[in-house]
């Protein structure tokens, strides 16, 4: 009871396949461009990470020294009157 499928024009088939292939090519080119851009961003972030880590280590050391000084101040005996 179902009808046989309609024949699709060869021109329409060609158009569909052409658009599919163009879309795949565009996607590949776009992905390549984005990958290169992301690689540059990661390089910059890696360089900044070295500087940021050095600053954090320096700040951590400064905080540790300040804490030691504060503890030394607290542990000093108070003069009795």
Automatic annotation (TrEMBL):
Superkingdom of source: Eukaryota
Pfam families recorded: ATP-synt_E
Recorded GO MF terms: proton transmembrane transporter activity
Subcellular location: Mitochondrion inner membrane
GO biological process terms held by the UniProt record: proton motive force-driven ATP synthesis
Cellular component terms per the entry's GO annotation: mitochondrial inner membrane; proton-transporting ATP synthase complex
InterPro entries (alphabetical): ATP_synth_F0_esu_mt
Regions annotated as coiled coil: 34-74
Keywords in alphabetical order: Acetylation, ATP synthesis, CF(0), Coiled coil, Hydrogen ion transport, Ion transport, Membrane, Mitochondrion, Mitochondrion inner membrane, Transport
Known partners and oligomeric status: F-type ATPases have 2 components, CF(1) - the catalytic core - and CF(0) - the membrane proton channel. CF(1) and CF(0) have multiple subunits.
Function noted in UniProt: Subunit e, of the mitochondrial membrane ATP synthase complex (F(1)F(0) ATP synthase or Complex V) that produces ATP from ADP in the presence of a proton gradient across the membrane which is generated by electron transport complexes of the respiratory chain. ATP synthase complex consist of a soluble F(1) head domain - the catalytic core - and a membrane F(1) domain - the membrane proton channel. These two domains are linked by a central stalk rotating inside the F(1) region and a stationary peripheral stalk.
Family: Belongs to the ATPase e subunit family.
Protein name: ATP synthase F(0) complex subunit e, mitochondrial
Organism of this sequence: Drosophila madeirensis (Fruit fly)
